[in-house]
Fold:
Amino acid sequence: MTVPVIDIRGLGKVYAAGTEAEVAALKGVELRVMPGEFVAIMGASGSGKSTLMNVLGCLDADYTGEYRCDGVDVRRLDKEQLAKLRLDKIGFVFQSFNLLSRMDALHNVMMPLAYAGIAPEARRPMAEAALTAVGLASRMGHRPGELSGGQQQRIAIARALVNKPPMILADEPTGALDSKTGAEILALFEQLKRQGHTIVLITHDEHVAAHADRVCLMRDGVLTESEARHVA
Amino acid sequence: MWRDTFGIAVSSLRGNWLRSALTSLGVIIGIAAVIVMVSVGQGTQNEIEKMVSGLGANRLDINSGASRAGGVRFGGGSRMSLTQSDADAIRQQIPEVAYINASLRGGGQAVFAENNWATSWQGVEADYFAINDWQVASGSGFEDADFKSGNKVALIGETVRRELFGESEAIGESIRIGKTPLQVIGVLESKGQGGFGQDQDDIVLVPLETARRRMAGNIPIPGGVQSITLGVARAEDLPYVQEQVEVLLRQLHKIPPGGEDDFSVRNIAEIIATRTETTRIMSLLLGAVAAISLIVGGIGIMNIMLVSVTERIREIGLRMAVGAGPKQIQRQFLTEAMLISVGGGLIGIALGVGFSLLTEKIGALPVALNWKVISLAAVCSMATGLFFGIYPARKASQLDPIEALRHQG
Structure:
């Protein structure tokens, strides 16, 4: 039996519990993502979308209910254990790329491999392969400042891919890009999906969400499977 | 893993190299001060040991001329007031005195064949060798007859031998000092550098009588000598003997009560005490400079590391998101802090060693440099980085990755 990459049951999260400012950000969220799926989680700001993404990304282990990330129970893990889990399971792609400006593309992509304990001489070929996979084989020696937004996001995606994590978690990956470049990035995600990568994309934009196989809608802390289904 | 941590630290410090360099300035100064402090302290300690072993702590030096400023005044003897009979009186009336030697000294050009060398000569008595614990290395020493009849014989120091004779045999040759021909009968064993940095081997010894008759020129008082040195058998007698000598000499020189002495008595223990005190104060001062610099430097490092943590919040958030644990983040920032302090420490060591060598070269203070001093300095610089780097590093490691990633700026 295949283990779901994301297996969430009855997930709840309450901020400032017991005070007047108490907010229930997540209310009984259910979500299952199987390997190879491309799922979009859509929601307006304030819908609990960011809270869900923090839990999905193993950045926040303080919730109620159950979350198994690639079979591992995340709840109550300490910071070191969460870091190890993120290292093994998740590749992050951010809206603002989050590249280190003093390093070139290759070294940005190699960065997670150091934490993964990969031998220095093995890192370069892995990073080169990842950069080639996102179509940046010719830009490896460039620093982020010398590249366009789309190219920078490709570096970030290569960085997310390099350690071959079971899941890529992309938070508004096209939010800082113009629509044409954004479309190219989304096409890249679709291509990665076809190659077997599991992708969870978080966005407020339904056009972006439409690229996924499956769209889940977040509203007032409740997640519902959307009827709208895009067929690629 | 360490290689990566180190690599990241180097690259991030290089990105702000001027800031890093300025930050390490405090450590540079502090460590340089540590090196100078310890090497001077050690050097003085060695010097004192050499003085004690070379000169013996059981001796008194009596010089012509008044003593001022607490009894420590070098270069006395400009106005001759001591005589041979003072020495004889001390020998006879103070039984605790084991050895006594009256000296005349001067400078002159020593000439042998075509070589000549500016040196100093000293006319000495038989006890000179016992008081100074000095032996003849080759040839023979003075005999009674040499002292009595003022024979024109000389013992030369190793430096004089080297300068005048080089490789050839010195003993039996005749040298000239000024107009006085002297036969070299022996070479003194090498004593090396003295406690005050002077070359003790740059000397020609002659019998006192010879010096008086032929070399000292016009002696203003009959039987006059420049200095009298005496040795006691037991060190504990020294204060008593010193007192007795002063009383006796005032009596012999007919100095009225309250009148100023026309001689000065120096006790090697006093000189050592003065030197020790000087060095102690110097060390204390340098120690304070070192401590303050290291603390200020350390605070500087802490400050810059806190700035660096704030500047790099997003980077920290990113590193945490891709899988760096709190321990790795802490290690990262601690490594950077230590790199600044150890880098500063290395420069400080170089500067400190340079200063110490300079101090030695200009002869201001004796220094002793060794690996102990340098490793102490290295440990100090590492400790500074560790102590002041731990707080910023902990602060970085305790950041919440969610907050850190969201941080603007």
